[in-house]
Amino acid sequence: MTLQQLEYLVSLDTHRQFVLAAEKCFVSQPTLSMQVQKLEDELGVLLFHRTKGGIEPTAIGAKVVQHAREVLRSVKQLKEAVQLEKGELVGELRLGIIPTLAQYIVPLFLLELVERHPQLRVQVEELQTEQIVQRLKDNRLDVGLLVTPLEDRALQEVPLLEEPFLAYVSAGHPLYGQATVAPADLEAHELWLLQQGHCFRHQVLNICTPAAATDNRPFTYESGSIETLKQLVRLNRGYTLVPELSVLDEINNNPMIKRFAAPEPVREVSLVVHHSFVRLPLLTTLRDIILDRVPERLQAKGAGKKIRWK
Question: Residue 46 region, left (φ>0) first, then alpha (ψ -120 to 50), else beta?
């Protein structure tokens, strides 16, 4: 049994097809297949079986894959511990970030991070919260940037921001004339929402009054983009809720933007890692770069009312 075989095994479990798994490991498909077959012969069990949709691990195969992920995580930690002793920030950083944060916060830190540490290869992927959590546990991501708390004992959370929710209101809506808004003001009429699967959607519904969860309009439109929701409000009517990072360049001169009366509802944004993560200087560097690029008022201080994401 070799580490190479374990890497092939994990890649096959991740991608569930031989060709793609081989591509990700930079080997030919016959090479990967042969090495997995050798591992099966050595262990004396069938690790995968073919299905109409590709391949699936057998019951014993799923257990072997989980142990393989743990072994590879330990090997990665060993290499990273040596790098830390040498004072190096090198290698790969696999970062998962939720879509409602990605387009606003990634441009703030990505270029500076790679310029400071040219030997660091940064891979950023937009994923839903549940996907990030699972990939952190499976050693497929190093760091997650997402909304917390997660209440998962396998993960460590480093609070970063407390980002206020703001109302984005069309000129024809009754809320447009108010200086501030309150959750009791939010009714279902003309509320635009993100589609199912986004934690931001759940938070919006947790802020609104129960009646706001339903709508009597003859149509619905649920977007996957906060920018689309803002455009719907600007060009049509109604209102939506947006995170403050999405309106930083217009917050002081756009009368469509309304703050909530104190205490403001906020979403807690954190850097999240597996408890076995050892590259703490890297985590600190990432945190410092982000905090240096956002307004101080957004930094986590416990002043707002945290809205749960589920």
Answer: beta
Q: Tell me how many degrees the CA angle 69-72-75 measures, rounded to the nearest 5.
A: 155
191-195 average pLDDT score = 83
Give residue limits of the domains in the chain. 3-83, 91-310
Query: In DSSP terms, which residues pair with 272 in a beta bridge?
Result: 144, 157
Q: What is the pLDDT of residue 193?
A: 85
pLDDT band at 135 (very low <50, low <70, confident <90, very high): very high
**Chain-centre distance of CA 295, in angstroms?**
21
| 4-54 confidence digits (pLDDT tens) | 999 999 999 988 888 889 998 999 999 999 999 999 999 998 999 887 777
The DSSP code for 218 is S
Residues β-bridged to residue 125: 96
The CA distances from residue 59 to 6, 32, 45, 89, in Å, are 17, 21, 10, 39
So what's the architecture of 91-310 in CATH?
A: 3-Layer(aba) Sandwich (3.40)
Higher local confidence (pLDDT), 284 or 217:
284
Tell me how far apart the alpha carbons of residues 173 and 245 are, in angstroms, rounded to a whole number.
23
Q: Which of 122, 120, 128 is nearest to 95 (CA)?
A: 122
Q: Which CATH number fits domain 3-83: 3.40.50.300, 1.20.210.10, 3.90.1720.10, 1.10.10.10?
A: 1.10.10.10
User: pLDDT tier at 102 (50, 70, 90 boundaries)?
Assistant: very high
